[in-house]
Design goal:
By secondary structure, this protein is mainly beta. Helix content is 4%, strand content 50%.
Length: 110
Amino acid sequence: MIQVIPVATPKRTAQAKDVLETAPGIYTAVFENDSVRVLKAKMLPGEKVDGYYHPNYLIYVIRPSVIRIVDETAENLHPCAGDVMWMEAGYHSCENVGKAVFEALLVEVK
């Protein structure tokens, strides 16, 4: 079953960086064209990514863990393998606060 979890984040700020600049060891680009950019994320337990910006994007969870998203608030997400989450454009940081490796594909809309 696919679960869609909407999560809103604040709008882009001048200091917001692209996630490939902020965390090149965690995020890799696997495809890009004029419409979308597809990234693969792999976060080990305890890994944290400081503030970065995403346009609107969809996440497909491959390997679940507990992910803490911090924007204007803080929220722990508990996705399952196969979950789909829609995320609004914005600036946030994230951390794998679970005990398992987290892997996902992110499809950013341009």
